[in-house]
Amino acid sequence: MRPEFLFFLLAYFALVLLVGLKFSRRMKNLEDYFLASRSLSPWLVFLSLTASWFGATSILVTTDEAFRVGLSAFWLVGLPAVATVLVFAVFLAGPIRRLDILTLSDLVERRYGALVRHLASGLIAWYMIVLAASQMVALGQFVRPFLKLPYFWSLSAGTGVVLIYLLSGGLRSVAATDVLQCFFLSGGVIGLSVFLVRSSSATVLFEVVRREGKVDYFHFFFDLERNALIALSFFLAWTISPIVWQRIQSARSEKAARQGLAGAAGAFVFLYGLVVVIGVFALPFFSGRPPSSTLVSEIIAAKLGPFGGGLLFVAVTAAILSTLDTALNTAALTFSRDIFFRLLAPSRRAASSSVGAARAATLLAAGLAFVVATRFESILQTLGLASEIMAEGLFVPGLAMIFMKGRHALAGGLSLILGGGFAMASFLSALNIVPFELPAWPFSVPYGLALSLLGFCLGLALDRFLRRSL
């Protein structure tokens, strides 16, 4: 065990808990718990969204990808993140904000009916659970080599800290801690990129690239088919992701939501650009000897002193926790509002125990994500499977329902069943639960998306035919 890292981790956990509990407030209903009473300022929307989006894949997987293939690593998360937030800021924030809904499933019911709503709620809950699990996987893998803890206990430590302030203050505590975590993760990324650029030089980097025969290292469009499919999968999933919808609904106004989204887009260009710089400029440090673990972990352990390494250790932990708490909070919103109070106990919807149900749903979400995390140890695979759920199951009917009028139950239902069913089959195939093999993510995305679009078009035609017949 490296005792200095344990000290930094415990100090950081204490600071996060202090902030999270300090800014918690007495909550009366689900809107207080999950939407912070619709009071977030543009700055809180910006900082909270930036921190919650910049997670494990951003800082661990992307640096590894940039180290391996060069500039094209920006396609992995950076490009879809920027594109998604800009689409929301320019086109979708206004329509979403003007809708009188609390959750994404409310709009699904309005456009496609109660049955499709329940199917969509299950799909969204599944997506958020797998997303939370991807951050738990990252936490366990990142912490384990420094503290020499078993994978199980590495998962448990970070998840326990998140649950304490999440159960206390809901989204308000998430937003407050995200401000702190955004400061740490931004400082870590900036500091590490400056250190690597100053410790090496462009001349040395070009020489190492030439010597190792990496002819496409500075080619932004290298391996375009794979990168474009990954970017498409993330873009489609995030466009219909409840996380952004929740931030838009939590803002104090439409203008505040748009300003926060625009600020997040600029931050993503900057941060993901620096992440790629880190991976590229680390190449001379490990020339001929690739890192035995993740690149950032190797730099922390071998290239920085105790203080610098400890700060970067905290920065990576902040990036992971800031996504984990958001995923669990949004998953709990679906479990409580869309499953428990709408499906299992509709007569208790206005009960005073709503906040208690929200907290119970948070614990349930954490438990399910924990179970999934014990089955996977690949961060990118887990996050990819999560994005596949939304991209194939809900993107087509989800985007259409924002702008369409009237109810089209068959269109939404067939689209969700065909696309979501294919995503479920891919998920079970990845777990080796089903006896057949499907194309691996991201190459499975076009098939599921095509099935979803086919189902929507067929259902829309049937809806119109039946309406004319009646």
Task: Describe the protein in words.
The chain has helices at 3-22, 30-35, 42-53, 56-69, 78-98, 104-112, 114-147, 151-199, 202-211, 224-239, 242-250, 254-281, 295-302, 306-344, 354-373, 379-393, 395-403, 409-430, 445-469. The chain is globular and about 75 Å long. The protein has a single domain, classed as Up-down Bundle (Sodium/glucose cotransporter), CATH 1.20.1730.10. It has 470 residues and is mainly alpha-helical. The model has no long low-confidence stretch (mean pLDDT 86). It has 19 helices and no strands. Helices cover 78% and strands 0% of the residues. Helix 3 runs parallel beside helix 12, helix 5 (78-98) packs parallel to helix 10 (224-239) and helix 16 (379-393) packs parallel to helix 19 (445-469).
Quick synopsis:
With 470 residues, this protein is mainly α. It contains 19 helices and no strands.
3D shape:
globular
CATH fold type: Sodium/glucose cotransporter
CATH domain class: Mainly Alpha
Q: Based on the structure given, which CATH architecture is correct?
A: Up-down Bundle
Q: Look at the structure and give the mean pLDDT.
A: 86
Percent of residues in beta strands: under 5%
Question: What are the salient characteristics of this protein?
Answer:
single chain; about 475 residues; mainly alpha; Sodium/glucose cotransporter; globular
Strand and helix layout:
Blueprint: H1 3-22, H2 30-35, H3 42-53, H4 56-69, H5 78-98, H6 104-112, H7 114-147, H8 151-199, H9 202-211, H10 224-239, H11 242-250, H12 254-281, H13 295-302, H14 306-344, H15 354-373, H16 379-393, H17 395-403, H18 409-430, H19 445-469
